[in-house]
Amino acid sequence: MPSERTHCVNTGPTARTATGDASAPATAEGESAVDLLGGLDIETTDDVAVPDRLIDQVIGQDDARDVVLKAATQRRHVMMIGSPGTGKSMLAKAMSQLLPREELQDVLVYHNPEDGNQPTVRMVPAGRGREIIETHRVETRKRGQLRSLVMWLVVVAVLGYALFVAGEPLVGIIAAAIVFYVFRVGGRTQRASVPNLLVDNGDQQTAPFADATGAHAGALLGDVRHDPYQSGGLATPSHDRVEAGAIHKASRGVLFVDEINTLDIRSQQKLMTAIQEGEFSITGQSEQSSGAMVKTDPVPTDFVMMAAGNLDAMENMHPALRSRIKGYGYEVYMDDTIADTPETRRQFARFVAQEVARDGRLPAFEAAAVAEVVLEAQRRAGRKGHLTLAFRNLGGLVRVAGDIARAEDAEYTTRDHVLRAKRRARSIEQQLADQYIARRREYDLSLVEGSVVGRVNGLAVMGEDSGIVLPVVAAVTPAQGSGEVIATGKLQAVATEAVNNVSAVVKKYARVDLDEMDVHVQFVGAGEGGVDGDSASVTVAAAVVSALEGIPVDQSVAMTGSLSVRGDVLPVGGVTYKIEAAAKAGAKTVVIPAANAQDVLVEAEFREQVDVVPVSNISEVLNVALVDAVEKSSLLDRLSAYAPAPPGRDRNRRSGPTPAP
Ligand SMILES: Nc1ncnc2c1ncn2[C@@H]1O[C@H](COP(=O)(O)OP(=O)(O)OP(=O)(O)O)[C@@H](O)[C@H]1O
């Protein structure tokens, strides 16, 4: 639960302008921390008010928020589909705060004297369950004490009679043992009269929230424990062995199941029954267990279901379960990004304050540190004019920065802490990519100087956020029969696809018939991962054309882009990370699809290192990548008839510095 905070600054549109170092430029584009905070007048996140209700803490996801608010009043189910860490479980918890608490009940399970294997169930208002149990316990204790007293009196009487009157000590001991046993067995009947408090809502401040993500059948549906002592009066009464499942604990509250498709089919079917009937009997889940004999009366399962997952989850979940949720509720797709406006920036400042409050140990963030988080949110969005909504990862950055500050006993988390955290909180893929780049340097695989025929520095993405330079080498030889595409390594399919994409373009202008040539393509140093045939197609095309025409490629140029059969360069993903990888590897120019120009948000340190050239068609790519030669002019002339380059763009007149983010 979020801690309550003093309300100091309204993160709404009326906030004033900040003072102090927050007004210093924080980005190369000259945006000050104040701008990056949407004009917020704060020194640290201590000055930012954190709302009490979770639903008010949710940033972005307007559709999902509306749905949750609506579903809470109507008690409808919700299915949320979207990327991890965008707030699905947060919204589910928020829903539990919105549902009325007054209706909560406790559930008690009683021994059934007529059939010990069918315990009876009773519902009482929340909090009453504990009172009932306590009353029963006190009564049982009193009766037990009286019983013990009586038992010891009888034992003493029996022993006394046997010893002093009958003179038969052995008979007396046996008789006393029988008395002792009879009283013990009787005592068990007394224990059986104490009910089992199956669902205890006594302390619930809000409607319950049960997270059944990855739960096994017993945890989801309830279970009856196995009893190894089933004879000799030692058995535990069956009602005492009954355990509630998440579906019972969530009754009148929220049952949250993330990655819903990972629940086994049988559990999904039972879940459906629980949703439909609003009650579900508890029985032992293991057929070999003595618990399997036991089945309680139905226990209420009147919960609101909040299911979540990614798109795969929706495809793989039981269709009937999906239709049940859909039929009695809403489906909502989570947003990945949100428009970057002063208002959303202020909300991001609140996000940092929320995470600091939630963690409870992190030093508050200075305004400039918050601005750096907003910058990172811009970068991670991968779209110009947007901020990422992948808050779990962004929260990770906040925590690492705060932890660094804490380790240094700093009073506040500063911009420098955030910058260091960004380096430290690299994903596995980023770490791998850096190792990969270092290793390639060692083996001299990264060639970023001079010119080579048929070799082009392509760019690829590992994971979601790590670029690598992936050179493509092509050679063209006359074919024995009809020409083939031959790729070395495991990337035959990728290479064939890329060459097929470019062959239409090549055929139009080439002086040789590509069908009569074998095209050899090699992705240098690539494993299976990282290479997406589509985004490599411009690279493959440039390598093949260079090899066909014998014109060297400038190795300081790296490129990415997808090629249409008409020769247009189409947008691809991960351009920012690719540009950064090219800069790290030492490239001087990066060719990207013009349509991606607005997505570029390169870290300041790389901005001066590379010249980014947005292009729209293959002739522009070749114009930039091929070194000046007579053959090049002839090639470009032939190409211009097919895919004319925009006027004024030639190798000596590139588009200038990195486009502003
Ligand atoms: N929209 C949001 N607004 C504010 N904070 C958020 C938002 N989304 C996520 N967070 C923060 O990130 C944390 C993790 O988010 P949450 O667990 O809700 O993600 P999720 O979508 O359920 O992810 P997963 O599907 O991986 O479980 C939250 O506890 C919260 O601190």
From TrEMBL:
Where does the protein principally reside? membrane
Q: Where in the cell is it found?
A: Cell membrane
Residue positions of the active site:
S535, K578
Q: Which InterPro entries match?
A: AAA+_ATPase, Lon_arc, Lon_proteolytic, Lon_Prtase, LonB_AAA-LID, Mg_chelatse_chII-like_cat_dom, P-loop_NTPase, Peptidase_S16_AS
Q: Which GO terms describe its cellular component?
A: plasma membrane
Membrane topology, as annotated, equals: Multi-pass membrane protein
Query: Does the keyword Membrane feature in the UniProt annotation?
Result: yes
Q: Where is this region: Disordered?
A: 1-26, 641-661
Q: Where is this chain compositionally biased, Polar residues type?
A: 8-17
Which is a Pfam family this sequence falls into?
Sigma54_activat
Q: Where is the Lon proteolytic domain?
A: 450-628
Which superkingdom, per the lineage?
Archaea
**Domain spans labelled Sigma-54 factor interaction:** 163-328
GO biological process per UniProt:
protein catabolic process; proteolysis; regulation of DNA-templated transcription
Q: Entry's SMART domains?
A: AAA
> What SUPFAM superfamilies does the record tag this protein with?
P-loop containing nucleoside triphosphate hydrolases (SSF52540), Ribosomal protein S5 domain 2-like (SSF54211)
EC numbers listed for it are 3.4.21.-
| Family as reported in the entry's similarity comment | Belongs to the peptidase S16 family. Archaeal LonB subfamily.
Q: How does it assemble?
A: Homohexamer. Organized in a ring with a central cavity.
Report the function annotation for this chain. ATP-dependent serine protease that mediates the selective degradation of mutant and abnormal proteins as well as certain short-lived regulatory proteins. Degrades polypeptides processively.
Quote the protein name from its UniProt record. Archaeal Lon protease
> Organism source for this protein?
Halomarina oriensis
Q: What is the lineage of its organism?
A: Archaea, Methanobacteriati, Methanobacteriota, Stenosarchaea group, Halobacteria
